[in-house]
Amino acid sequence: MSGKFIRSGTATLVLSLGLLVGCSDSFNPRDSAAMEALSAQQIYQLGEVEVETGDPGEAAFFFGEIERLYPYSEWAERALIMQAFAYHRDADYPNSRASAQRFLDFYPAQPDAAYAQYLLALSYYDQIDEIGRDQGLTFQALQALRTVIEQYPDSEYARASILKFDLAFDHLAAKEMEIGRYYLKRKNYSAAVNRFRVVVEEFQTTSQTPEALHRLVESYLSLGLTNEAQTAGAILGANYPATSWYQDSFALLTGQGLEARAQGDSWLASIYRQVIRGEWL
Predict the structure, then answer these.
(1) What distance in Å separates the CA atoms of residue 78 and residue 191, rounded to the nearest whole number?
(2) 163 CB contacts (<8 Å, ≥6 apart)?
(3) What is the pTM of this model?
(4) Are 218 and 171 in contact (CB under 8 A)?
(5) What pLDDT was estimated at residue 221?
(6) How confident is the model over 71-87, as pLDDT tens digits?
(7) Using CA atoms, how far apart are residues 36 and 205, in angstroms rounded to an integer?
(8) Which backbone phi and psi does 186 adopt, to 5 degrees?
(9) What is the CA radius of gyration of the chain?
């Protein structure tokens, strides 16, 4: 949405700013009396200037002043969503989220409610780019993105939310893989299996699944559980035969005289049967 309400060019806005403050060095935006002398539209224009050419944190202040001085005006509604945007641009995610939530509370039926919900989701999503971060943020991002997708399916933000939802979902799976590899490296095979199983059962649509199946082959072979190892290899071969993970698993299995074939009645065998029936992807 950036600039959705910014209809004037930067040069026009800068000129407008000069006219508003009389080109005076004594203008202090933190002076309540100085702000009260301006109209809601004039304060909004000050915020626009900061969004385009200056400090987004300062822009958020100006938009907040409109909410304070003209709380029931049309400008207050417009300023609130712009404040959420300005805070987000400033990477002040808690305040961006708070402003977006206020917009949703006050104006739930307005067209910009979809964007407010999207900004709220982004306030979580933009903090989960590192696997090592708190996974609570990822769950909150998923929940907020799902709200955009389900409540505003026809909005311009739904498609972007779907893409981000898939990436955030993959991020959770990647975290499980990271921990599983940690256990595998330290030969704690049972703990590793538990992590890789989570990926296969709960995150099977993510890009992490082929590796998770291969790591299960490695872990089960190390534990001497050949039936489970062969079944994991069979699932991998049925779904991802062209991947290097299957090639590696095939080499491990054949190296011990085994096949990538479903064996026994484990949780993996149950999944394999679902694969054959086409109920698991």
Answers:
(1) 52
(2) none
(3) 0.77
(4) no
(5) 97
(6) 889 999 999 999 999 99
(7) 55
(8) -95, 10
(9) 27
From residue 40, alpha-carbon distances to 1, 35, 67, 93, 179 in Å are 21, 9, 9, 25, 53
Q: Classify the phi-psi angles of 280: left when phi > 0, otherwise alpha if psi is within -120 to 50, otherwise beta.
A: beta
Question: 84: which 2 tokens?
Answer: 């959420």
d(CA 152, CA 172): 25
Longest dimension (CA), the chain: 86
Pick out the chain residues at pLDDT < 70: 1-32, 129-134, 276-281
Position 33 scores a pLDDT of: 73
